[in-house]
């Protein structure tokens, strides 16, 4: 790409960063172009914190692994005989945006090394345990999902 487009100043990798991103970064380093070409990607990478520390990436969007959790909350409530909804629903899974070394480190500490929700928090998403819990409450939890939200809920901020 750099040979074909010498004016290239940015690359966005749309997924599969575990295999694509290291090669892109290494190529830009070999060509001495890490300062000229900004790299961003969709899909978290296990080395993203190191890449931020070395200014190899400008931004990463991902962390949307919670979709399975929301499905589980809906399924568990249904199986417990206290469904949150009767009809089929579609839930938009929220992405996390990392734009700095601090963002990446906070993600590592509060969402990678730990789960974003504790077992007590999940228990409160059960209408059988928490009779007041509603589908709208679940949607609010989903909409609030962010690194800052996790840090606040877990007393790290």
Distance between the termini: 42 Å
Strand order of the largest sheet: 1-2-3-4
The shape is: elongated
The level of helicity is 40-55%
> Compute the gyration radius: what is it?
19 Å
Query: Tell me about the biggest sheet?
Result: 4 strands, mixed
Tally the helices: what do you get? 7
Query: Quick check: average pLDDT?
Result: 92
Backbone structural class: alpha/beta
DSSP E strands, number: 4
Order of helices and strands: EHEHEHEHHHH
Low-confidence stretches: none
In terms of DSSP E residues, the strand content is 5-15%
Q: How would you portray this structure in words?
A:
There is one protein chain. This protein is of the alpha/beta class. It has 7 helices and 4 strands, in the order βαβαβαβαααα. The protein has helices spanning 17-30, 48-53, 67-79, 101-112, 119-123, 135-144, 147-153, and strands spanning 10-14, 38-42, 59-62, 96-98. Strand 1, helix 1 and strand 2 (38-42) form a beta-alpha-beta unit.
Short description:
The protein has helices at residues 17-30, 48-53, 67-79, 101-112, 119-123, 135-144, 147-153, and strands at residues 10-14, 38-42, 59-62, 96-98. With 157 residues, the chain is of the alpha/beta class.
Task: Furnish the topology, listing elements before pairings.
Layout: E1 10-14, H1 17-30, E2 38-42, H2 48-53, E3 59-62, H3 67-79, E4 96-98, H4 101-112, H5 119-123, H6 135-144, H7 147-153
Keywords:
single chain, alpha/beta, 43% helix
